[in-house]
């Protein structure tokens, strides 16, 4: 054996599990591999979070734009219920997929993370209930294009704010940036007016989430690899933040 | 130089090192369900229990038996002491790895 320092020149143990790692390098490798495996199993595949929402926005708002474009222009003649039903079905589907993904990943972990996730989920639920309670009766008195802009603008605005809040809760810069992006394009879309808003949200918002999903996935893989390379981390990474 | 750093005998065993390394990835304040931990580690329930008990005796792991609804659950988490011991162990192993291997004064220095 190369390393005869420290306690690595061990006596043979009776139980195989009691055997120390063969040498320091093996010990570090064991730690790194185990932590990478744990991180892989304990963090969600973020594609499953962002792609369903991204597709819902891309397709749903895309259809809304085609139904009623800028200045009342109709690109594809279809009844209003068609894009609306498509959008809401896709949004509900995305919500269910997010719920399943979260439960599968975090279901067996209790404590602070779970409480955070639960309260954050409640903020979404109650927040959107509030939006619906207010906009439902109000939008009845508005022409179709303005009612649509009101609904979409307020909902997307709340989504952006909640993403930013999520970034603040988990100190996740990417999540915060996504929230900023959604908030900004929402404001730009609302200023541009009915029709344009749907186009902006479809392409920049839905497309943005599809991109964000891939970016987050790659980032997590890279982070896992970094964690695997260095466990010295806890101190040095904290100070790097 | 006081020689090679001492390695914590509780953690310095492959199986328990894997358990502690896994628990160290949880965020502070979180606990993991026994079956999920077992699943990640790919250990038998009996085997994992034995190692957890040893870690608990050393004060490195806290095991809480509770109920989620009507199902009894066993929750596992690293204690502060356990987290500290793991960090110390990692540092000690790194020190061993980084240390020049010509500590013996009888041997000539390899590098100037």
TrEMBL record, chain B:
Domain Winged helix DNA-binding: 16-96
Pfam families assigned to the protein according to its UniProt record, in alphabetical order: HTH_34 (PF13601)
Name the UniProt record assigns to this protein: Transcriptional regulator
Organism: Plantactinospora alkalitolerans
């Amino acid at each position: 054996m190369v390393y005869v320092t420290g306690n690595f020149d061990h006596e043979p143990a009776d139980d195989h599990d009691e055997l120390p790692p063969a040498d320091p390098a093996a010990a570090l490798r064991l730690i790194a591999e185990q932590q990478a495996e744990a991180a892989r199993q304990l963090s969600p595949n973020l594609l499953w979070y962002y792609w369903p929402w991204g597709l819902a926005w891309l397709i749903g708002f895309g259809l809304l734009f085609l139904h009623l474009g800028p200045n009342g222009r109709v690109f594809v003649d279809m009844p209003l219920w068609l894009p609306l039903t498509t959008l809401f079905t896709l949004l509900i589907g995305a919500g269910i997929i997010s719920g399943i993904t979260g439960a599968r990943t975090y279901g067996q972990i209790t404590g602070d993370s779970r409480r955070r996730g639960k309260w954050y989920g409640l903020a979404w639920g109650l927040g959107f209930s509030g939006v619906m309670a207010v906009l439902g009766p109000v939008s009845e008195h508005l022409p179709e294009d303005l009612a649509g802009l009101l609904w979409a603008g307020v909902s997307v605005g709340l989504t952006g704010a909640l993403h930013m809040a999520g970034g603040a809760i988990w100190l996740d810069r990417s999540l915060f940036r996504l929230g900023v992006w959604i908030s900004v394009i929402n404001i730009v879309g609302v200023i541009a007016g009915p029709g344009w808003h749907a186009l902006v949200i479809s392409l920049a918002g839905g497309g943005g989430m599809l991109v964000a999903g891939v970016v987050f996935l790659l980032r997590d893989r890279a982070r896992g690899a970094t964690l695997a390379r260095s466990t010295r981390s806890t101190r040095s990474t904290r100070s790097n933040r | 130089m006081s020689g090679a750093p001492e390695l914590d005998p509780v953690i310095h065993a492959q199986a328990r090192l894997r358990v502690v390394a896994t628990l160290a990835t949880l965020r502070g304040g979180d606990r993991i369900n026994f079956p999920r931990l077992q699943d990640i580690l790919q250990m038998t329930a009996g085997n994992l229990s034995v190692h957890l008990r040893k870690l608990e005796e050393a004060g490195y792991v806290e095991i809480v038996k509770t109920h989620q609804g009507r199902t009894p659950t066993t929750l596992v988490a690293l204690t502060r002491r356990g987290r500290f011991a793991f960090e110390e162990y990692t540092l000690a192993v790194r020190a061993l790895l980084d240390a020049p291997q010509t500590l013996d004064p009888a041997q000539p220095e390899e590098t100037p």
